[in-house]
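Course assignment 3, question 2. Fill in each field.
Student: A.L.
Task: Predict the tertiary structure for the chain below.
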Amino acid sequence: MSPTTLAAHPPPAATPPSPVAPPRRTRVLALPEARWAAAALALFLLALPLDLAGPPAWSWGPLYAAVYVTGGWAPGLAGVRALAARTLDVDLLMVVAALGAAAIGQVRDGALLIVIFATSGALEALATARTADSVRGLLDLTPATATRLTAGGGEEQVAVEELAVGDVVLVRPGERVGADGRVLDGAGEVDQATITGEPLPVAKQAGDEVFAGTLNGTGALRVRVERDAADFVIARIVAMVEEASETKAPTQLFIEKVEQRYSVGMVVATLAVFLVPLAFGAELSDALLRAMTFMIVASPCAVVLATMPPLLSAIATAGRHGVLVKSAVVMERLGQVDAAALDKTGTLTQGVPYVTDVRPLPGAGRDEDALLGLAAAAEYPGEHPLARAVVDAARTRGLPVPPVDDFTATPGIGVAAVVDGARVAVGSPALLAGLAGPQVRTAAAEVAALQAGGRTAVTVTVDGVPAGVLGLADRLRPDAAATVTALTALTGTAPTLLTGDNERAAARLADTVGIADVRAGLLPQDKVAAVREQERAGRRVLVVGDGVNDAPALAAAHVGVAMGRAGSDLALETADAVVVRDELAAVPAVVALSRRARRLVVQNLAVAGTFIAALVVWDLAGHLPLPLGVAGHEGSTVLVGLNGLRLLRDKAWHRAGAEAPESAG
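Answer field:
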């Protein structure tokens, strides 16, 4: 019977466990910035209804004053210190503008400015603290102690920091490897997804390299230490995440740089409006009133709202549709990307192997169902991911799985058991070693064909005679190809595939989804190097990944996006955005949404600039009554705010998703 494929009917997806221990999370209110911002917001919400209801000022005035103190003292103090260092801090100018508004009775406007900036500072502090928590949690992957073998053949427990290059450590089944080194003796299967991102445990034997923090599944290993603790790959991942996070920590949006220059001019102009009339004999009260009116109409309230409502509305809309964007800075950056780099396992694929091919050998006397049933029975007692995939494939076909006797597992080779009186062995192509005959040659040819197609080949023998070969592969996400197409349209160039998996599997997947630039067999530092190579060429790179091994690249990228369902805690915290619902197609949709938000920012700036210019000219060239100045200022602020809130509608997300494949960047 000719072989058939099971790719069209894969077993139900399973969620692989996260390889990273939960990090120690900083509580929101443990941050002083968050406590002060919360206090300012609460006081503002208490004062606002009293203010609008019209009771005496003594009932709400002290509350507004408390808003100024709680929300404004920290940025004000930081601004004064920056001023002492001859740097004009934009937050200080916002505090000054708020105080200027209060000086002529516009206390509510000033308090709102204080609340906005205090909240923004708290969110930035929280994002920084959570990243630091995740980096510390990553260090928990490396065991605190290791079993070092002594010269006399004994064992001793020592701290990992005490290990020196040349020491030999013993790693028992179920233990984490304590140091980067090379296997001297023993065989086992090591789960090293934390380092390479490979979805399956890797067979290790004498001469193979192992990494600290990876998990030894079966078989004891004797490992010679080849690096000091400070140079372990896991330690270098931590260092790279910290370094990249510092170099790309949110500073200011581009518009805030424009706002800073504008604010400097506003301060200088306000002083001129006050002092010049005085020099020509004007009354102090008249000069002060004109200057305060100028301060109000020229204040950057509308400029601030020109940027935040569109970006925050886009963040809220993306959140409702399963994409957590961590700040307005990130939302703005998403619209700037002009290159993309995608991880393979857990990103373009689901990270769960499944049976793709069942190939009984001619003359073995078994059809596909019989071969798969025997393999599932032998694999049933096993815990290897490939074993679960084989058993799931049999259950999908409704095949019976008979009980077995005399089950054994050989690390790096496979399993064997007695099924219905026959000795059935299932495992790697190494099972064919030492066997002879035409069936062996046929089996070897099937193995070669499957491996050439990027599959993992599993051989099945019955009483020492090859009976067939199974092909397994990682499951491609259903929206992977469409996402690649959409990102290509948005950025103007096809994404790059960055993976720690082998070249054959990477090339096969890349060909399926339409990626030409494939970089396989990468360690975390190699992924960072690939991202920085594109950045040196002037590209703004979007990196999408899910594992600990992706975290440095996520941190180094212009924007890093993590897949949330199977993503490691470090990747989720390091990334700038998280696809919570694990829908890959949401990535190009949020990029398109960001670009719409950026267009609204430009529109709002035009509106705000027009109003400010008109009111300033009126105040300087004529006599602008204070009520009209306040009305014009507040009107432009409301108009700009409402325009930005357009992106809160669900229609904005659906439109972004529809436009993504059609966009040319």
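Instructor remarks: The longest helix spans residues 586-621. The chain has four domains: 21-140, 145-243, 333-348+478-589, 351-475.
Grade: pending
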